[in-house]
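Lab notebook: predicted structure, single chain.

Context: the supervisor wants predicted structures on file for every construct in the current expression panel, including those that have not yet been purified. This is the next one on the list. No modifications to the sequence; it matches the entry in the shared construct table.
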Amino acid sequence: MIHIYTDGACLNNPGPGGWGILVLKPNTPEPVVCSGGKKLTTNNQMELEAALQALYWLKQNAPTTPAIIYTDSMYVQQGITEWIHGWKRKNWITASKTPVKNSELWKAIDAAQLHLKVEWRWVKAHNGHTENEKVDQIARSQAISYRE
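Prediction complete. Output recorded below exactly as produced.
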C-alpha cells in the first residue's frame, strides 16, 4: 500500500500558490517529494492540483498498487468521493444550478483516477500530523517562491 499526502497553499486568495505531495512507499526509507505552483491561483485550485499530481505520480510509478491519498481539504475529499457523481450526471452543474467551480481540474482528477485503486482520506490540518505538516511546508514554500 502506498500512502500519498497532498496539500495546497495560497498566499492571499487568489495569489501565488503552491502544491506538494509526499509519497511513502513500502520498504522505502525516504519519501518521494514532488511540488510546484503558480503565480496566480486559489487555495482550492492548489489543493486540487496536489491531488491530481498524486494521481499522475501513481499512474506513472505504481499503477497497480493500491494507494491511500490523504488531503486536509474537505473540498477535495468530499468532492471526489461524493459530489462528483452528481456533477457528472448533471453535466458539471451543481445542485444550485451553477457551473462547478474548477471543473477542468475535477475532470482531470476524475480521468486520472480511472483504473487506479485509490482510497481518499481526510486528515485534520495543523493538528501535529507529521506527514501533513511536512507536505504543508512543501506547499507553502512553493507559494512563497512564486511571490513577486
